[in-house]
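User: Can you predict the 3D structure for this chain?
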Amino acid sequence: MTYDIKDVPREIIIVEGRDDTKRLIETFGPQVKTIETGGSALSRKVQAEIKALAADYEFIILTDPDYQGQRLRNLLSQLVPQAKHAFIEPELARSTQRKASLGVEHATPETIRQALAEVMTPSSQEQMEWIPLHQLVQLGLIGHPQANLRRQLIAKELHLGYVNGKQLQKRLAQYQIRLEQIQAILEKEE
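Assistant: Here is the predicted structure, written as C-alpha cells:
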C-alpha cells in the first residue's frame, strides 16, 4: 500500500496502546509518530518522555472514547496543556467481534483521518470564556429530560467527544465555542 506523505500528521499522536499505533500505521504509513501510554495509566517514564519531546514537537491526544480514555485525556491535558485533541465517536470505535470492546484500534482508517482532520486546539486558561450554567440549562443542555441527547448532538457537531453537563461547559470554554454557535446548532435541529 502507498501512503501520501502530505497526509501524515506532523504532530506526535499520543495513544493508549500498541494496537492503536498499529491502526495509525495502517492509516498513515510507517512515518506516523506515536507515543503509547501503555493503557489508561500514565507512568513516570511516559510522562518524562512526553515532557522531553514537548520542547520540539506538538502533540495530538487520541484516546479511546470511554471513561478510562477520558481520564487519561485529562491527565495528558495537565501534562501538556498545549496538546491538540482528536475525538472518535463511541459508535465508530466499537469492535465488530466483541460488542463491549471500544477503542481507537477498532476505528476505520477513514474515521481516524476524519477525527484528525477535525482536531481541536484548546485555549490557555486565561483565554477561556465560560458560558454560564444557567444558559446551558435554558438551552436544555442540563437538567432537561432530553439534555443528554442534546449535549451529544452539540458534541458531535463540534467534535468534542462524549460530554456530561460540566464537561460540556469546560470544553466549550477550552475551544472558545460561543453561545451563538450552540444556539445555531440547536435551532437547525428543531
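Residues 155 and 163 are 7 Å apart (CA to CA). Residues 133-189 form one domain.
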